[in-house]
Input
Amino acid sequence: MGKAFGRLVLIALVVFGLWYVFSHYRGAANFGCNVAAGDVAHAATGGCPDSVAQADSNAQWAGARIDTIKDERVTTGLFYDEDGHEHKYDSSQNSDSDTALQVGRQLGVFPKVGRPSVVDHVEVKVAAVMRSTGVTTGVLVINNPAGPCARAGISVEPMSCLASMPRVLPPAATLVVWWRQSDGGLKNQIFRGGQ
Output
């Protein structure tokens, strides 16, 4: 009876531990609103979206999220999936670039040889992850004041990032990208898959 009771207690502790981790993880993943102490007030004002549909049109929320990455040295983005989980990407050459290259090659968007620099763009990385994981709706905030698919304040040639986005995104998928312009104004652009 002592061993059975001990096992029961152990199982109860494991279940409690899993519940505790899961409940706190889900709360922290609520569209980035619980990331920092200053965000608690933001969430209390009602500025925190309850769904990705609310996030894609919520400029107050997008601006607060952009402010958390504004000092990053390279273009950095925070992607929010359909469940509100936050995923961070940047424009450095990394494993996310490799994923974008692989997905783009499978789709025929990128050539079978060579490595186009477009795979380092945050937007293309996010589109590739959406394609490979089946996510069809998301919101991305970026710290580049020139907007999506731009480098050093100059838009990239049309056959690069902007042209690749609709082809890399899953068919009928929607990705809303928010950024803060140099004058402080917030803008967004909608990318749709299959166009």
Notes: Strands lie at 76-80, 86-90, 137-142, 150-151, 154-155, 174-180, 186-192.
